[in-house]
Write the structure tokens for this entry.
Amino acid sequence: MMKKVLLLLTILLLVSCESKNQIGDLAYDFSVEDFEGKTVNLSDFEDQAIYILAWSTT
């Protein structure tokens, strides 16, 4: 489950970086396959708080 959440959060971060979203805007629903091949939708986490942790290396 944690891998699914991390994958969704990473994709959400990448999608939000390309858009003009503001804090409080609703995120677009999207689906991805997790590491086990199951489809996971952002809407699966509706009404749940999502924490995004981002980092980078050089």
In short: The two ends are 29 Å apart (CA to CA). The chain has a mean pLDDT of 77. DSSP finds one helix and two strands in the chain. The longest strand covers residues 31-33.
